[in-house]
Amino acid sequence: MTRIFQLLLCLAVASLSVSAAMANSIRIKDLVEFDGVRSNDLVGYGLVVGLNGTGDGIRNAPFTEDIMSNILERLGVNITGEQFRPKNVAAVFVTATLPPFARTGSTIDITVSAIGDAKSLLGGTLVMTPLNAADGEIYAVAQGTVIAGGVAAEGDGARVVQGVPTAGVIPAGARVEREVEFDFTRLKTIRLALREPDFTTAERIEAAINLTFGRAAARMLDAGTVVLDVGATRAISPAHALGAVENIAIAPERKARVVVDQRSGTIVMGEDVRISRVAVSQGNLTLRIQEQPLVVQPNPFADGEAIVLPRTEAEIRKEPGTGLAEVPGGTSLSEVIAGLNALGVAPTDMIDILKSIKAAGALHAEFVVR
């Protein structure tokens, strides 16, 4: 019975280890970027019409009048010598991302942003706008009704704005007119670029790919690049090779890192962060200065002027600190944070403490401040 119990215990431990490894495994497609499989940025300059009096002021944005004149002339409307001052049009920048392998006729989402003094794009319609890439060629044409990201209301004495009404989106608002010329089928080797370069992770990707195909199909070049030999995979095309590679799961290695946001007091840390033996003391010093001027007026019907006498109250107050606390070596940062929370340390003070621990050389992690 004892041997059976030991065997069952070993099987249970092995099952838990495999489950933990599978839980930490991530697909290669979520860790790397494939060479040649990339998107391209598009930008255009257009006009939004149909606004309810919330468009550009023509005098403050003369470029709106220029583009409106060009559009009307292309439509056969002669406006030479005419002066118009509409308030229902707005000049906008149109931006989009052309995804990899986008084909002619497919649609993409676009973002519309006002560049003049328009107050809102709510309810407006984007007139046909060509979208150019970095090479100056037109790859898509955008048009449609703008879905604004906010709302604005105003009266004679007040104005209320919620969100950003001067920017909006048009889902599937652009149609692809030109494809990016790239022959993916001719690639003999494909580079896998790690989003976060790491030698251990790159080695694990190489080993997992070679184990899958049973031969040396992948080779690590450096911490951020693994080269895949399409011929060694015996796939009929590079697309089939990547289809077999991208779903292979590995356990990536992460750097010990602490990220803090001073504006919101947010602290994010990894599980591998460690702190050496260090002593921490924290206290607050508050300086308060308040002005309370005193106005002295002359008696009624007497000649004289009112005199303002300055009165200042200054106070320096020192709050009791958390004392001198010693942190033993090898302690995880999560344990230190839990201890500081138990002492009632504010998030902003906690960030200052972490900065000081890092400056003392006791925090063994990359420290990122945003």
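(ticket continues) Second input and output from the same batch:
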Amino acid sequence: MTSTDRTGEAREEFGFADALDAPIPYLTRIRDYYSALGYGAPYRWAHYADAPFARLSRPLTDCRIALITTAAPYQPDKGDQGPGAPYNAAAKFYRVYSGDTAQDHDLRISHIAIDRAHTTAEDQGAYFPLAAMRRAQARGRFGALTQHFHGAPTNRSHRTTLETDCPEIVQRCRADKADAAILVPNCPVCHQTVSLAARALEAAGVATVVMGAAKDIVEYVGVPRFLFSDFPLGNSAGRPKDEASQDFTLALALELLEKAPAARTTVQSPLRWSASAAWKLDYSNIDRLSAREIAQRRAQFDAQKAIAKDIRQSIS
């Protein structure tokens, strides 16, 4: 029997999954993608060997929980922001913002690099779980939402994130007397941002859980608790238009808050995006792009970078 035969028979006989049905290697994909676009030295991702860990100071049913998001408030004068919008740097935000959790909000994620091939950001419940948190609170699962949720900007600058944004998020959570926080990223850099914010909150005594879809990035940074959903970027809080999926995903995060035994605890949701794992081959996969498509993407990215640069200069 040849090795090929053995591999094939094992898959059929034992029900093995397809070899590609594993978490997307975002760190490698993104490095190769931007290198092929001609951007020189690869981005250096934040990386720690250890992680702080704060246990809940009281039972979850008595805890006040904050929500941290990388989604942006809709700005009608900033162009197309979805659903299905292309990347829109004009809709970016560069400073921490807060919103009243008792109010409904229109938050969008067109300003970041979600998986536009496989999701449209049509349902904010898939990336901003405020509604699911209200439902869980109404069922008595935890004590209360903090008065505010907070928006974390997706700055690529480690210095800005660590020295400006993270301290601001900690201060706002402290002002709201948060016992714990749930952090929900969307794009690859979002996953780094909220991971750094989670570390800062834990060091300040606020227990956290990151709900995300980029496993390698979050684990590379190093966080206390991570709930991994193997979904396309932009769906860290559950499937779109699927309230049961969103409630289940939040329930896993809350249980992780209570029961994680130590820092760097990862739990993977059992939910699957689809029966086929073929969608995992598409995101920033340079092997699937022609030379013409690579040139087009470089031009599009340069144009969006110029827009973002103008905005940063206007607010500095």
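Agent notes: The helical segments are 3-14, 26-36, 130-138, 158-175, 188-203, 215-221, 243-259, 291-315. The radius of gyration is 20 Å. Closing as not reproducible unless the customer responds.
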